[in-house]
Amino acid sequence: MSRPFTPKVLTANDLIEGDAVWLTPRDEWSRNMADAELLEDEAVAQDRLLFAIAQSDVVVGAYLVDAKASDAGPAPVHFREEFRTRGPSNYPHGKQVGA
Amino acid sequence: MYTYTDFDEKFVRERVAQFRGQVERRLEGALTEDEFKPLRLMNGLYLQLHAYMLRVAIPYGTLNARQMRQLAYLAERWDKGYGHFTTRQNIQYNWPKLKDIPDMLDALADVGMHAIQTSGNTIRNVTADHFAGAAADEIEDPRPIAELLRQWSTDHPEFQFLPRKFKIAVTGSPKDRAVTKAHDIGLRMVRNDAGEPGFEVIVGGGLGRTPMIGKVIRDFLPKAHLLPYCEAIVSVYNLLGRRDNKYKARIKITVAENGLDKIRDLVEARFDELRREFSGFDQDLLKKIEAEFTPPTFRDAQLEGYEAYRAANPAFRSWTDTNLDDHRAPGYAIVSVSIKKHGATPGDASADQMRALAELAERYGHDELRISHEQNVILPHVHKSDLPAVYEGLRAADLATANIGLVSDIIACPGMDYCALATARSIPIAQEIAERFDALKLEHEIGALKIKISGCINACGHHHVGHIGILGLDRAGVENYQITLGGNGTETATVGERAGPGFSAEDIVPAIERLIGAYLHIRNDADETFLMTYRRVGLTPFKAALYPEKEAQNAA
């Protein structure tokens, strides 16, 4: 039996900067996870993954990952994805300082 | 020190030009990521969690002031003003942009450096004893051999697509400071009965998910046979090593599955063929390389000033107690500069600090610097009369921490703060342990202790050979830290034993504190180090300290 589908977002790294990005409902890549499209249907998610993989001139290594709805928009479930929305913990670098 | 020949210069420049074209084609969309990835990896460029990462080789850990200044320049011009020194004597830049990489590589080529073969299934940066050419206990400087191996392995056409990566370490001392027994090939210089220097050749060591201590494949290899013998080993591995399973592809598995005797027979047979092809050009080349590693002209000077400064300045005295090692020249010392200030990121140096180190190396250190696998910087040749000036210079650059070999001198991989492969963070754990023991003011009382932290099973933080090893894992979506005890990375290398169930990020530092508390209680006296105590009493009393609830249950 296959596992029930859990909500997901599509994420990747920006080709030039390497920064974490998420696919929005408007087919754009945002540096802010809250802008992401929350994918609650498996068939739609697979379709969006194919779209993302075809965007290889803009992003690298697109993958689907679990996410949950929040008031601000989609939010991470796993700590790894949470770190990707923020940056490293040893310096104020990366997204947590907007750079 | 080795300086690039016209051939080296041309080769490195050509590689940069090729990569510049490849980056342009990637940015234009002419190359897909699948096509580009192997090309960028060949040039040391990774894509990590938040950004690209460029890994630059510091061959056998040696660099001069000009090169160190250039590393500082790269950090400031194209990164966030710092660099991270790694356990394989590389420096990593955590924030470069793809379009800037060719310029960074050109800037490295300006000072005879590159990022070639710092990734991929090739022979990686050859590492060496960081005290090479300076250590009192050394038979010979191993760096000419390491440079010969670098030239031989760089772009070697037979070895560009090995089953897996391949790491070689070399030491010229019987005392192993290069962790040779945890490398694919470890070379330990020894003398034969006639007193001639040669190598004990160790094969099939490695850490990672299947840690193995290397096995001696040849007790004594004459120096002149080194290159054909190493080529024979890699050649046998290239054909025999498994390519069906990435986790079984390293030579340690090849040796374990086939047995050392079979590997030795194959290597000796291949060596017999190869040695005839090495008609002596390698020895001519080695002679030229050796001429570039002539020791500096050591000087004589009075030591009264040093002794008086030491007597008058307790902080300086404490630093000389922990951060100096015996030099082979009278009046000289090897200075280990700690890149482990309490609470700072292990191995990270700012551009200003790199420049300060370059300045000190130039003024007081015969223009030489080393990067240790323990993520510190070494000034290998300092006359003791210059130590007060060196110390004050280091203090001004916030580099005078007196903790070499102590509990806060922790190896930590970048972990999940940067690395795409990591399963948990390492850096914050190292920071917290260092700060905790600094606050307790126990560090010097605890004495020699090596804590090593890896943020995943690949073990870049060498946790298996830490006296206390910490491995960060993902347990059901939460960071979890497993402790191993009794590991050791020297000539008596041992893989540590797992102590029991892991601890959460909140509980790991108190657990380490209980562990060390137990050691202080159990040890015979202050001369019995943590490792000696562990070897005497074994795991049980430490387990009791780590898991007091379980102990209480057992007693009930």
UniProtKB/TrEMBL annotation, chain A:
<feature type="region of interest" description="Disordered">
    <location>
        <begin position="76"/>
        <end position="99"/>
    </location>
</feature>
<dbReference type="InterPro" id="IPR021270">
    <property type="entry name" value="DUF2849"/>
</dbReference>
<protein>
    <submittedName>
        <fullName>Uncharacterized protein</fullName>
    </submittedName>
</protein>
<dbReference type="Pfam" id="PF11011">
    <property type="entry name" value="DUF2849"/>
</dbReference>
UniProtKB/TrEMBL annotation, chain B:
<keyword id="KW-0479">Metal-binding</keyword>
<keyword id="KW-0408">Iron</keyword>
<dbReference type="GO" id="GO:0020037">
    <property type="term" value="F:heme binding"/>
</dbReference>
<keyword id="KW-0411">Iron-sulfur</keyword>
<dbReference type="Pfam" id="PF03460">
    <property type="entry name" value="NIR_SIR_ferr"/>
</dbReference>
<keyword id="KW-0349">Heme</keyword>
<dbReference type="GO" id="GO:0050311">
    <property type="term" value="F:sulfite reductase (ferredoxin) activity"/>
</dbReference>
<feature type="domain" description="Nitrite/sulphite reductase 4Fe-4S">
    <location>
        <begin position="409"/>
        <end position="546"/>
    </location>
</feature>
<feature type="domain" description="Nitrite/Sulfite reductase ferredoxin-like">
    <location>
        <begin position="52"/>
        <end position="110"/>
    </location>
</feature>
<keyword id="KW-0004">4Fe-4S</keyword>
<protein>
    <submittedName>
        <fullName>Sulfite reductase [ferredoxin]</fullName>
        <ecNumber>1.8.7.1</ecNumber>
    </submittedName>
</protein>
<dbReference type="InterPro" id="IPR005117">
    <property type="entry name" value="NiRdtase/SiRdtase_haem-b_fer"/>
</dbReference>
<keyword id="KW-0560">Oxidoreductase</keyword>
<feature type="domain" description="Nitrite/Sulfite reductase ferredoxin-like">
    <location>
        <begin position="346"/>
        <end position="397"/>
    </location>
</feature>
<dbReference type="InterPro" id="IPR036136">
    <property type="entry name" value="Nit/Sulf_reduc_fer-like_dom_sf"/>
</dbReference>
<dbReference type="Pfam" id="PF01077">
    <property type="entry name" value="NIR_SIR"/>
</dbReference>
<feature type="domain" description="Nitrite/sulphite reductase 4Fe-4S">
    <location>
        <begin position="119"/>
        <end position="272"/>
    </location>
</feature>
<dbReference type="InterPro" id="IPR051329">
    <property type="entry name" value="NIR_SIR_4Fe-4S"/>
</dbReference>
<dbReference type="GO" id="GO:0051539">
    <property type="term" value="F:4 iron, 4 sulfur cluster binding"/>
</dbReference>
<dbReference type="InterPro" id="IPR006067">
    <property type="entry name" value="NO2/SO3_Rdtase_4Fe4S_dom"/>
</dbReference>
<dbReference type="GO" id="GO:0046872">
    <property type="term" value="F:metal ion binding"/>
</dbReference>
<dbReference type="InterPro" id="IPR045854">
    <property type="entry name" value="NO2/SO3_Rdtase_4Fe4S_sf"/>
</dbReference>
